[in-house]
Write a structure and sequence with these properties.
4-stranded antiparallel sheet; Helicase, Ruva Protein, domain 3; 6 helices; DNA-binding; N-terminal domain of MutM-like DNA repair proteins
Length: 277
DNA sequence: CTCAGTGTTCAGTG
DNA sequence: TCACTGAACACTGA
């Protein structure tokens, strides 16, 4: 599921269901991969009977602020997500998830919470690359302390952005994916940003001019705000976005651009050579 | 059967 | 020490 917009959607869903309420039941799946570092039993003990004060997000990490520490932090890997019977779950074009109809708890559930008043939350993760961990001070301990600026809420000034980018010699695509640079930019969003900023993803970051880095910075902001505002429902993204074409190889855009695909920064990258220089 | 895939981390290299 | 690269992780679905 996750790119920043889906994590933000999960954050607001959890906020509606759980904030201000006490956790009255906890079930943890027997999965030592997802529960890495903190056992299912430890997580259960930390959550049961606690009141949820707030839900925070930084980059693609999410955590619950409880009335007693430690607090749980969640990362969704490639296929994790949150579900609640009260909230229609977001579906993403790229997720490939098949809807198998009503099923509760959903297939691949890892953590199930019931809160006072009847609300319920479930974290799922098919591929098990997601993580549930406990931290006493999430913001100031790894992995969250290692993140760069939050791409949605902490975008630096144009000048500062250029100064962060200029020392880096890796391809700009790889730098955008580095969570220690910008927290929350994932694979398709990096491609979308570079497409709209008209920058070739292979360009080395230190070769970009201030005008070019300013375009990238501004597109990080606008792409993320739009994606978050439509609840990460891909069908509602503007028709002009690369998003609608990047997964169908060999199919030109409606306005005639041919896309190229190549692995950059370890990830499949799509771009339009005719307009990205 | 093979392969790609919304992500992170770690080992190895220069 | 640092920046960077590529493999590993574990599994689903095409």
């Amino acid at each position: 599921m996750p790119e920043l917009p889906e994590v933000e959607a999960a954050r607001s869903a959890i906020q509606r269901v759980a904030v201000g309420r006490r956790i009255v039941a906890v079930r943890c799946a027997d999965d030592h991969i997802v529960f890495q570092g903190s056992s299912p039993a430890q997580v259960r003990r930390a959550l049961l009977g606690r009141r949820v004060r707030a839900v925070h997000r930084r980059g693609k990490h999410l955590w619950l602020e409880l009335d007693r520490r430690p607090w749980p932090i969640f990362h969704f890997g490639m296929t994790g997500g949150f579900h609640s019977p009260a909230v229609k779950s977001v579906k993403l074009k790229s997720s490939g998830n098949k809807d198998r109809g009503p099923q509760w708890p959903p297939r691949f559930w890892k953590l199930q919470l019931k809160v006072a008043g009847g609300g319920e939350l479930v974290m799922t993760d098919a591929r098990r690359l997601g993580r549930i961990r406990l931290r006493h001070d999430p913001r100031n301990e790894p992995p969250i302390s290692l993140l760069g600026f939050d791409a949605l809420h902490e975008l630096p000034s144009a000048r500062k952005f250029y100064e962060l980018l200029h020392p880096r010699r890796a391809p700009i695509k790889a730098v955008l994916l580095d969570q220690g640079f910008a927290a929350g930019v994932g694979n398709w969003i990096a491609d979308e940003v570079l497409y709209q900023a008209r920058i070739d993803p292979r360009r080395r970051a230190h070769t970009l001019t201030p005008a070019e880095t300013a375009r990238i910075r501004s597109k990080i902001g606008s792409v993320l705000r739009k994606a978050v505002s439509v609840g990460s429902d891909g069908d509602r993204f503007p028709r002009s976005w690369l998003f609608h074409y990047r997964w169908d190889r060999g199919v030109p855009t409606a306005w005639g651009e041919t896309l190229r695909h190549q692995t950059i920064g370890g990830r499949t990258t799509a771009w339009a050579p005719a307009v990205q220089k």
